[in-house]
Each structure stands twice: as structure tokens, then as C-alpha cells.
């Protein structure tokens, strides 16, 4: 009897655990029954190890499968408290700390999560896997709070710890993560030596091929985004090509289930499928900046299709971030190619995604208002464009985005023609000749173009030519096709006004060819109007008729698209400037804007 009695709790425990797991993995999961089985364990007054593990299991099941976060928190707090009193119980102890701090963050109790993680980091130094994982977790928490300095410090500590415990792979992960944050902070002096070191570690590390290639993808993604941030569309091409080859290599490799011998190596940067979407994403960013808009469309379609498949199985928030960034880029492409109605529907789609996640909205609110501002320009609602850009400026602290918005707002003031004081105030802050606020080659070239546009409207043609030639020089150096096309057609217009028809033709013809290749509908419309007038002035009636026909076709396409966009209920988004995106958008009667000045 005694023997049977002493064995009973163990057998009861194993039976209850088995039932709990059976109910958890049922299809659909029977979470209530699973929880009942785990709670029954406490009836047997189990030893501390069993008690702590059961609290962890209950906390985990409640956290992941129910909305009862308070009860989950109670169980996780008990698991953390009891496990600290038990020797050699690292897995339960640190998993409880990790999960509990995650739950605290979800409940906006960040000030409870930080000391918990610090304590866990302090006592986990003999457990490499958990020590590294908890350092990553606390660094991520600081990053979400936009305290990038603290996050970088922790990642530096992690890199040194990984080196000491002989994990060059995880050292590279810490260093690359730090490099990513330094790029976000624009600390370029620190980024360059760090990326050089990372490159050396990645090349010399001999280990699991998928892990090695994923490090290389991380490294190359940082390099490519660094170039694109700097507006260097041509210089980035070799890196981008390497990145695309790298992802092809990864997709042919099989995931080996062989566990690394060093427990500190048990990390993956991103799943293979997420990396594929990310490479599509940076390719879209490059194509859009370079003005290869059909290519951008092709890769966006591929990426969004892949995302839809992934989101059926995976609710990772990074997938929604990828989706929003892809949509932001394709919306800008649509506005250029003359598909405003589609762009507006996609802006509404971004609004819906942001409604589902407050964090996504806080990270993308400024971009969303910027896109609405660009849409307003395209449908000639200049007052709304100004309101959208002003809202976006209020919401952003990102220097490149701030400069992009100011450049577009300046173009609105130039078109309105009566906002001289505000316009000059803006232009002083984005002077391409001195103290330009960012290092972006592309934005500086655009600032020269804006100056040229203003000088043209003021009739100061020689000054306009100087600015536009500067834009052309910069855009040709980095293959910025849209800026090249815009500068050529504006120079062509200036020469036409000055009566130099031959020189005007030399500018407008290549502008038209480039605009057709992009394709940029506004520049095509503008170029065809100029070609019609040029040919008429030169007595080439056949060519003038052909250009007039082209102009008529472009006008019709733009007019139909304009009416379609302004008739959509989503058009009312142009009035939204406060708070989160509106949940429902009321329909309205027909377009309320004029196309006259656009044509």
C-alpha cells in the first residue's frame, strides 16, 4: 500500500499532464478542459518543481489561447517566484520570466517588465541560450520605447558575451541588430566599422548553411537599405544582386534538424519565408526609387501573394508591417502611373491594417498622411494636401521623411502661387546648396528641382536652368529616372518659352521616352502638350497632329481616373487629419475637384 501510495501522485501527475496535452492539441483545441486538468495537479500538493512547472504551463496556455490575461499573469508570477527557490531549474525559471515580461508589455506595464528582465539577465549568465534570449528581449523592449541608446548598449553586451562563450554566429546576430539600430539613429560613423566587422564574421563563420546564409541576408539587407536611405539607387545594384542570389540559395537549402552543439547558437534571425518577402520588399523600394514602376508592381504582387499565404498560418506582427510598407510603395507608384482610384483603395487598406494594431498606426501614421497628401495633389485638392502634409510633419521625427514631406509641401505652395512667406520659410530649411538636413542624394536632387520649378514660375529662367542642370547631374549619376524625366520636360518648357525650339525639342523628346518607360502619366501629358506646340511652331503639322492625339489620349485616361477616384467613398479620407483612421467612410456624390489646372 505504502509503495502504491507514494507512486500515486506521480502517476496522477503524468495522467493529468497527458490529458491536458491531448485537449490542448485537439482539433479544435479544448482549452477549458486542458486548464481543468492542469489545475487539478495542485490538489495533490505537488513538490515545488512540479508546482512551478504547472503554473508556467497554465500561464502559457491562458496567455496564448484565451483573453484571461489576469489569470495568466497570476500563474506566471507564481512560476517565476517558486522557480527561483529551486536549484538547477533554469528552463522553467527563465521561460516564466520571458513570458511574464511579454505579458506585462501587452498590458502596458513596461515598468514591471524591465526590472524582471534585468533580474533574469543577471542570474542567467551560466545559461548561454537564456542569457542571450533575454538580452535580445530587453533590447527589443527598449527599441519599441524608442530608447535606441539603451538597446544598442544591451546588444553590445550580448555580442561580447557571445564571443566569450564561443558563439560567433550569435555574436554576428547581436552586432547586425546593433547595426540596424545605429542606421535608424543615423549614426553612420559607427555603422561603417561595425558592418565591416560583421562582414568578416559572416564570411569566416563555418556552420549550418541556412544559418550562414541568413546572416548574409541580414547583412546585405542592412547594406541595401543604407544605400536606399542615402538615395543611391545606382550604387546599390551590386549589393541588391548579391542579396537576390543569396535568397535563391536559401530557398534551395533544406532545414536540417541537427541542433547546434553550442546552445548559444539556437537562434534564427527570421524564418526563410519571411526573408523571401523582405527581399521582395527591398527590391520594390529600389524599383520605385529608380523609376522602374512596372518592375515594382511585379514584385509587389509576388510579395503580397506570399504574405496572404503566410498570414493564414502565422499571425506574426512583422508580416503586417511588411504588408503596410509594400502598400505604401505601390501606392506611390500608382499615383505616378495614373491609377489614382486604385491608390486610394490601397490607402484605405493601409488604414484598415492600422486600425487592427495601435503600434502599426503609431509607426505609420505620418506615412499614411503623406500618401493622402500626394493623392490630394494628384486630384488637385491643394488645401487638403497642405492639411495632410502639415499633419504628417507633426507626427514624424524621421529626418528623411520630414524632408520628403517638406519638399512636397513646397510644391503645393508653388502651385498655389500666393503663399510666398510660408514657401520661403520651407525652402530655407531644405536648401540643397548648404546645410541640407539629410545625406540622401535623391532628396537633395529633388530639392534642386523644387528650386528650379519656383524659378520657372517666377520667370527667372537662367536661375531655373542652373537648378535643373544640377538635378539632372545628380539624377543621372544615380539613375533617378523620374527626376531626370521631370527635369528634362521642365527644361524643355523653359527653352520653348525662350523661343529656342531646337533645344526644347532636345529635352522634351528624351523626357517623353523616359516617361513612357517609367511610365509617368503626368510627364507624358506635359511632354505631349509641349511636343504638339513645338511641332506646330516649327510647321510640322503631321507630328503636331500625332502629339495632339497622344495628349488627348493621356487627358482622357487621367480624366476618367480622376472622376473614378473622386467618386469613391474613400475620397473622404482627404479630410481626416486627427486621431486614428476613420472606421467607416461615408459615400459622396460625384467628384468635387476640378481637373482643369491639372491638364
Automatic annotation (TrEMBL):
Principal location: nucleus
Gene Ontology CC: one annotated term: nucleoplasm
Pfam families: Cohesin_load (PF10345)
Origin superkingdom: Eukaryota
Keyword Cell cycle: yes
Keywords for the protein's UniProt record, in alphabetical order: Cell cycle, Cell division, Chromosome partition, Mitosis, Nucleus
Cellular compartments annotated: Nucleus, Nucleoplasm
Gene3D superfamilies tied to this protein: Tetratricopeptide repeat domain (1.25.40.10)
InterPro entries per UniProt: MAU2, TPR-like_helical_dom_sf, TPR_rpt
GO BP term, example: mitotic sister chromatid cohesion
Family designation: Belongs to the SCC4/mau-2 family.
Protein name: MAU2 chromatid cohesion factor homolog
Species name: Cyprinus carpio carpio
Amino acid at each position: 500500500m505504502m509503495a502504491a501510495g507514494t507512486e500515486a501522485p506521480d502517476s496522477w501527475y503524468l495522467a493529468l499532464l497527458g490529458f491536458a496535452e491531448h485537449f490542448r492539441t485537439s482539433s479544435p483545441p479544448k482549452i477549458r478542459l486542458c486548464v481543468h486538468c492542469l489545475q487539478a495537479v495542485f490538489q495533490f500538493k505537488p513538490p515545488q518543481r512540479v508546482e512551478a512547472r504547472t503554473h508556467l504551463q497554465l500561464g502559457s496556455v491562458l496567455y496564448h489561447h484565451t483573453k484571461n490575461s489576469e489569470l495568466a499573469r497570476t500563474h506566471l508570477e507564481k512560476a517565476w517566484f517558486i522557480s527561483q527557490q529551486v536549484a538547477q531549474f533554469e528552463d522553467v525559471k527563465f521561460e516564466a520570466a520571458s513570458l511574464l515580461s511579454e505579458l506585462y508589455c501587452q498590458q502596458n506595464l513596461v515598468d514591471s517588465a524591465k526590472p524582471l528582465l534585468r533580474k533574469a539577465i543577471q542570474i542567467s549568465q551560466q545559461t548561454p541560450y537564456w542569457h542571450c534570449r533575454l538580452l535580445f528581449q530587453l533590447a527589443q523592449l527598449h527599441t519599441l520605447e524608442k530608447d535606441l541608446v539603451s538597446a544598442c548598449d544591451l546588444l553590445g553586451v550580448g555580442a561580447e558575451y557571445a564571443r566569450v562563450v564561443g558563439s560567433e554566429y550569435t555574436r554576428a546576430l547581436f552586432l547586425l541588430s546593433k547595426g540596424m539600430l545605429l542606421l535608424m539613429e543615423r549614426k553612420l560613423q559607427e555603422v561603417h566599422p561595425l558592418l565591416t566587422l560583421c562582414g568578416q564574421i559572416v564570411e569566416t563563420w563555418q556552420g549550418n548553411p541556412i544559418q550562414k546564409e541568413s546572416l548574409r541576408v541580414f547583412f546585405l539587407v542592412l547594406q541595401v537599405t543604407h544605400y536606399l536611405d542615402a538615395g543611391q539607387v545606382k550604387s546599390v545594384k551590386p549589393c541588391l544582386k548579391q542579396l537576390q542570389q543569396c535568397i535563391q540559395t536559401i530557398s534551395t537549402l533544406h532545414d536540417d534538424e541537427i541542433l547546434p552543439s553550442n546552445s548559444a547558437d539556437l537562434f534564427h534571425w527570421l524564418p526563410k519565408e519571411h526573408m523571401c518577402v523582405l527581399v521582395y520588399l527591398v527590391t520594390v523600394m529600389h524599383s520605385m526609387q529608380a523609376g522602374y514602376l512596372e518592375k515594382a508592381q511585379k514584385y509587389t504582387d509576388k510579395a503580397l501573394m506570399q504574405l496572404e499565404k503566410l498570414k493564414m498560418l502565422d499571425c506574426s506582427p512583422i508580416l503586417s508591417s511588411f504588408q503596410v510598407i509594400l502598400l505604401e510603395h505601390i501606392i506611390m507608384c500608382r499615383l505616378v502611373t495614373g491609377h489614382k482610384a486604385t491608390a486610394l483603395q490601397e490607402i484605405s487598406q493601409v488604414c484598415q491594417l492600422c486600425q487592427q494594431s495601435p503600434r502599426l498606426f503609431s509607426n505609420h501614421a505620418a506615412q499614411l498622411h503623406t500618401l493622402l497628401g500626394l493623392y490630394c495633389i494628384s486630384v488637385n485638392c491643394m488645401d487638403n494636401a497642405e492639411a495632410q502634409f502639415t499633419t504628417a510633419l507633426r507626427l514624424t521625427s524621421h529626418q528623411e521623411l520630414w524632408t520628403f514631406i517638406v519638399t512636397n509641401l513646397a510644391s503645393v505652395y508653388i502651385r498655389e502661387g500666393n503663399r510666398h512667406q510660408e514657401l520661403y520659410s520651407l525652402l530655407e530649411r531644405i536648401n540643397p546648396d548648404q546645410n541640407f538636413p539629410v545625406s540622401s542624394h535623391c532628396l537633395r536632387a529633388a530639392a534642386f528641382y523644387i528650386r528650379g520649378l519656383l524659378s520657372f514660375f517666377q520667370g527667372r529662367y537662367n536661375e531655373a536652368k542652373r537648378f535643373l542642370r544640377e538635378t539632372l547631374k545628380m539624377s543621372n549619376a544615380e539613375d533617378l529616372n523620374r527626376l531626370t524625366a521631370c527635369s528634362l520636360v521642365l527644361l524643355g518648357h523653359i527653352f520653348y518659352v525662350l523661343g529656342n525650339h531646337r533645344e526644347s525639342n532636345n529635352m522634351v523628346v528624351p523626357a517623353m521616352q523616359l516617361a513612357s518607360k517609367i511610365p509617368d502619366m503626368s510627364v507624358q501629358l506635359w511632354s505631349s502638350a509641349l511636343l504638339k506646340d513645338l511641332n506646330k511652331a516649327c510647321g510640322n503639322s503631321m507630328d503636331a497632329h500625332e502629339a495632339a492625339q497622344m495628349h488627348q489620349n493621356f487627358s482622357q485616361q487621367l480624366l476618367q481616373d480622376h472622376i473614378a477616384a473622386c467618386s469613391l467613398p474613400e475620397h473622404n479620407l482627404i479630410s481626416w487629419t486627427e486621431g486614428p483612421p476613420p472606421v467607416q467612410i461615408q459615400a459622396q456624390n460625384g467628384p468635387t475637384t476640378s481637373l482643369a489646372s491639372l491638364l
